[in-house]
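Aim 2, interim progress. The first record below pairs a target sequence with its structure tokens.
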Amino acid sequence: MLMNRLFRTTISVLLMIMIALSLTGGLSTARAEKLDPIEQFVERMYNIVLNRDSEEQGLNHWSEILRSRRMTGAQVAHAFFFCPEFKARGLGDRDFILTLYKTLMERVPAEWEIQHWLHHIWLGWPLDNVFSAFVHSAEFGLRCRDAGITQGTYIPPSGGMARVFATRLYRTALGREPDARGLDSWHNLLRTGSVTGASAAFSFLFSQELRSQNISNTEFIRRIYLTMMGREPDPEGREHFLRLLNANWPREDMFASFVASLEFEGICNELGFVRGTYTAPPGGMVRVFVTNVYNGALNRGPTDTELNEWQASLMRGSEAAVLAYELLFSNDNRSINDDEFVRRLSRAVLGRAATAAEVTNWSGQLRSGATTRYNLFVNFVNSAEFGRLCTDHGVTRGTAPQPINTVYGTGNMHKVWNMIVTADFRGISDRPEHVAGIVGNLMSEAGPSLCPFQIQVSNHAGLGLMQWTGRPGRRTDFENYMWSRGISEEAFYTEVRRHDTWYCNNPAMHPVELHDRVLQVQIDFMFHELRNTWERQYMGFIDFPTDRTGVAGARAYAELFCSLALRPGVGRTDNDAIRDLGVQTALMASPFVGGSGRLDRISYSGLAVRRDRAETAYLYFINNHR
């Protein structure tokens, strides 16, 4: 136990001696005690800076100068640090910094402090300027006060900091050491004001030499920070600019933002040259907007051709809503489910990911038939959030374009046609033959006027556009759907009871708001049925060979839609199961799926009328389409 205590005591004493020696430059404690504080200050200069003991004459000479205040502590320190004897020692940058700390601060620096000053020297700081920072520090001021001398100041030669920036241009922008001739040239141009800081930085950051290095966006961000701010990028700044650059924001736009920053202005003032200005070519944020819409809507960025064409179009005044519509409703998105559509819609139009609650809410509305993808898109485009996004990117918001294949007009044909198109069920809007085939069937059920209050007084009392009947309970489902969508049962049946042929053929006689709401809800229910009944699996067969176009395609589709859609198997019975087999058999024989049979082998009344009215609807489209 006694030996352990003696060992610990011995170690403590040795450590104290080592610390004392490090702060007196190896001067023995006994000798240091014989010197007054001013002489100790001078002795440290000899011991640490020149790495030797002082001679008596030198010690007395410098001590007297300080005591009489003919020179300050900063001036005497400079005389030692930049004398030929010290330069002859040939110390590297690290040892130079260690010597500054031990001499002027009377302590050993932490490693991070050494790295801090090494970084400044790498950025081009002359040793004169590093020395100046030390002798102007509060810590050196305390050492001078303890010694009873004046701290003083040291101003490096003028133009030295312009050389710092010139050196930095080579080391941080180009990643190499400067050649002497080039360094002198840029130093003189900056020092004399012949070039600004902005123009000098641009010449390097956008030089052919740097372009040929083909550096990544991450590396470009690092270099522009080091070059213009003299520091590594902070994590938030790096992520912010990386997100923009990866979205095709031009590097010139990033450079312009740095030039305009207060931080760069302060650095130029500190280094002693003019900041200058830089204006980036127009359209940079438009490129970001186009890229973000592509990534959001299609899960891919635009090709160079797509990017350039849309940038030019938007800069000429084309509407941002048109770009978003064309991508979100392109063929690439036909097969995605409602959840994925909502996610893409939010990213493309709002510029952000939808929350889980938003996905649940919006996709739930789509699945229930409370809205359509097109109508949801319209709501997003009309939102304040999309408006701000467009303003921030310098593009015109505009309005949601009418879907392709919509028609002009004012009557029920026009309304029903456009409602079917905007529902965009399984890509129906891409083929006017499809829409005409559906409209032809509805005209056969509800009459040419397409009255939503049409009622069939016999044969199971069919009701509405598709004459939903009580067999097998479809009318009850239809009514419940209407009431759930806010249609008043009393108001609806008031119009049904007032129905007669003349009234139904003049839909304007119905209350307009109620009429249009009922019309929309019935179209929504039609697609709701198709999405949620057993026959939805067969809807995938609704397609055309290339020769089934125009009037012939509309007539053929009318048959197919009649067979598949007018009698969905809600609440199936045994008889329905027999009919299901008949539908399947007909499909397998259909020319639509490679068979050679005819769809009208299913006995269903009015197929000829349905084909004729589909032709009428198609010709209406030809004469009135947008």
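The second target in this work package is listed in the same format:
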Amino acid sequence: MAISIDTANPSGAVLSFTLPSDEPPCAVSVVGSFNGWTAGEHELRDRGDGSRSVSVVVAAGDDVYFRYLDGNSNWFDDPQADEISAHGGVVHVPPAPTGSQPATAGSATADEPGKAAQARKSAQPKKPAQPRKAAEPKKAADAKAALDPTAPGKPSAKPRSPRKRTT
């Protein structure tokens, strides 16, 4: 079993699921949050090298939940997922790369548990969190005082002398 992620695709991250061709010995599809948990929509296809796989495009930065469903209606999880939850496997898809070299996580194998997750995490640059400044609320009294020319602290407006009308 293997899971790999390629974040270089401009349409989104390409998430690939790979299983041995003969385990289980029937058709297998991957279902999950990316296809509305629809069985049979993403069936793993034979690659001719002793494995079968399918790839799906998902949004970069998302957590993808998935499980495998075989042709005998048996559900099973992939131990190479970043975590296994009550809803199946979870893959934490890294955000899209911002630099000129795209980050691509390698595939994990049974000999390398958790390596894919480590590769994805280490491939992403760390950005320090920037604190936001909260806008100070403008008090109604302050706004009214700013408009009132006779408010305390403002010079008094001099009364104008009435204009004379000429007829």
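The domain at 2-123 is CATH 2.60.40.10 (Immunoglobulin-like). This observation will shape the mutagenesis plan for the next reporting period.
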